[in-house]
Amino acid sequence: MTKADLVEKIAVQVELSKKDSEIVVNTVFRSIIEALATGDKVELRGFGSFRTRNRRSRTGRNPKTGDKVAVPKKKVPFFKPGKNLKKLVNE
């Protein structure tokens, strides 16, 4: 499912225009991104939770040349599915 498919589904189900449902989808995504950027955790009961995880710095390798490359530490987004989502997917 793409973002456009999600916008279409919301527009049909809630009887909104596509433009209004796109605003809703963008607002939800933007809110999740802003919360993660400030270090907050986003928990959607029954669906799952979003949080950031810290990756330590490491020495990587350039696959083209084989040279060693320093990869700095960074934060990466992480999604943990909720119990209900796991159950529905596995049925």
> What is the 3D form?
elongated
Sequence stretches where pLDDT stays below 50 over 5 or more residues: none
Instruction: Give helix % range.
Output: 40-55%
Largest sheet, spatial ordering of strands: 1-2-5
Proportion of β residues?
25-35%
* Number of helical stretches of at least 4 residues: 3
Number of beta-strand segments: 5
Report the span from N to C terminus: 19 Å
Taking the sheet with the most strands, its summary is: 3 strands, antiparallel
Order of helices and strands: HHEEEEEH
The overall pLDDT average reads 94
The structure class reads alpha+beta
Instruction: Kindly provide the radius of gyration, computed on alpha-carbon positions and rounded to a whole number of angstroms.
Output: 19 Å
Description:
This protein is an alpha+beta fold and 91 residues long. Helices cover 44% and strands 30% of the residues. The protein contains three helices and five strands, in the order ααβββββα. The protein has helices at 3-14, 18-37, 83-90; strands at 42-44, 48-55, 58-61, 68-71, 74-81. A three-stranded antiparallel sheet has the order 1-2-5. A two-stranded antiparallel ribbon has the order 3-4. α1 crosses α2. The longest helix has 20 residues, at 18-37.
Short characterization:
This protein has 91 residues and is an alpha+beta fold.
Fold topology:
Elements: H1 3-14, H2 18-37, E1 42-44, E2 48-55, E3 58-61, E4 68-71, E5 74-81, H3 83-90
Antiparallel strand pairs: 1-2, 2-5, 3-4
Helix pairs in contact: 1-2
